[in-house]
Amino acid sequence: MSSQNIYILGIESSCDDTAASVIHNGKILSNVVANQKIHTEYGGVVPELASRAHQQNIVPVVHQALEKARISKEQLSAVAFTRGPGLMGSLLVGTSFAKSFAYGLNIPLIDVNHMQAHILAHFIDEEGFDKPPFPFLAMTISGGHTQIVKVTDYFDMEVIGETIDDAVGEAYDKSGKILGLGYPAGPEIDKRAQSGDPKAFSFTKPKVDGLDFSFSGFKTAVLYFIQKQVKENPNFIEENLNDICASIQYTIIGILMDKLKLASKQTVIKHIAIGGGVSANSGIRKALKSGEQKFGWTTYIPKFEFTTDNAAMIAIVGYLKYLEEDFSEFDVTASARLKI
Ligand code: KG4
Ligand code: ZN
Predict the structure, then answer these.
(1) Are residues 12 and 98 in the same domain?
(2) Which among 20, 203, 309, 330 is most buried, taking Cβ atoms within 10 Å?
(3) 118, part of any domain
(4) Residue 239 is assigned to a structural domain of this protein
(5) Which domain holds residue 177?
(6) Cα(169) to centroid of ligand 1, in Å?
(7) Count of structural domains within the chain
(8) Between 168-178 and 216-232, two packed helices, what is the crossing angle to 10 degrees?
(9) How far is CA 181 from CA 167, 177, 193, in A?
(10) What pLDDT does residue 40 have?
(11) From the CB of 212, is ligand 1 less than 6 Å away?
(12) What is the reported pLDDT for 276?
């Protein structure tokens, strides 16, 4: 794309991960993430604690990202940061840091939409990973998001379906909490599901029109089911944990796949990409792959470290915007509800 040496520092702080990454042209040189363990004991992200942890982490994380990339800050071409959506207190830490860093170095500042970044992570140069051709459909699934987006060009995106309540990751985590599993519960439910019977128990799928999702009713269905069973047999959870996990996973994947199939049919687009923490799920990966045979899809799943919240995806968007000289004013503000 360019013979210039463009170095972008990307900063991500929208939720509970403080992350920084350096990208050289399209290639990632470093990708540092500091996870905030503090939330585990509360069973979910506590916004106040998140922003405090970001304040503690941001300087060492950026320092490490530059060190691992083996460049000095003076070599940077621009600083890209997550403007939103996310938790306001968390976003403010990254936004103010990015502004002062770019200002001090006298280089451009680039604001990035976190949801666009999850999708554009597919354009990071990475051996063995193909980039989706336009137009493609992207399904972003994580603890904070559940969207289906029609992507016509890098910055020409349309949300054609999204959750009207909980995100899919929350459905995993809240179901896990009911079962007494730790937070986040998604990975453990996934692991146990692989040795359970997916048809052991059935949970009704929510009826939501069109391409939108709903997961709050599902969580309630799991709660009532478990309460009823435990009343009859206090050891119900322990005796059936793998089967319960498999049945939960089966229902959730069914919900996601139904909407994805409908989206592909309606838009006549067969290139399908996923992103977000839940795309690590073994069941969704299998279901997607089977879509290649069944529906003639070509599917794209990014490298794991680029699916969960990370700054490499912010840096790649920064690079793409840098090429278009799409820079931000220094009075840009964080936006908790920023839309695609
Ligand atoms: O993208 P992410 O790291 O953070 C945001 O929420 O933005 O996603 C975390 C979510 C959690 O809800 C976690 O339970 C879920 O992704 N998750 C999984 C798996 N790995 C992570 N859910 C299902 N199966 C997995 N293997
Ligand atoms: Zn995210």
Answers:
(1) yes
(2) 20
(3) yes
(4) yes
(5) 136-301
(6) 5
(7) 2
(8) 20
(9) 18, 5, 13
(10) 76
(11) no
(12) 92
Return the best residue to mutate from 45, 172, 249 for the ligand 1 pocket (most ligand atoms within 8 A of CB). Answer: 172
CA of 318 to the centre of ligand 1 (A): 24
Q: Output the pTM of the full model.
A: 0.94
> Is residue 86 lining ligand 1, measured as CB closer than 6 Å?
no
Query: Which tokens is 89 given?
Result: 């207190």
Instruction: Give the phi and the psi of residue 109 in degrees, each rounded to 5.
Output: -110, 135
264 in the same domain as 163: yes
CATH number at residue 185: 3.30.420.40
Is residue 186 domain-shared with residue 314, that is, in the same domain? no
331 occurs within a structural domain: no
List of the chain residues with pLDDT < 50: 1-2
Query: What's the pLDDT at 67?
Result: 98
Ligand 2 (single-atom ion) residues, CB below 5 Å = 142, 309
Asked if residue 277 and residue 199 are part of one domain, the reply reads: yes
| 116 and 147 share one domain | no
Whole-number Å distance, alpha carbon 280 to ligand 2 midpoint, is: 13
Give the Å distance between the CA of 205 and the centre of ligand 1: 21
What ligand 1 atom has the least distance to the C-alpha of 191? 26
Q: Per the domain annotation, does 340 fall within a domain? A: no
Q: Rounded to whole angstroms, how far apart are CA atoms 158 and 339?
A: 10
Q: Characterize 217-237 residue by residue with b for buried, 16 or more Cβ atoms within 10 angstroms of its Cβ, and e for exposed.
A: bbbebbeebbeebeeeeeebb
* 154 and 37, same domain (yes or no): no
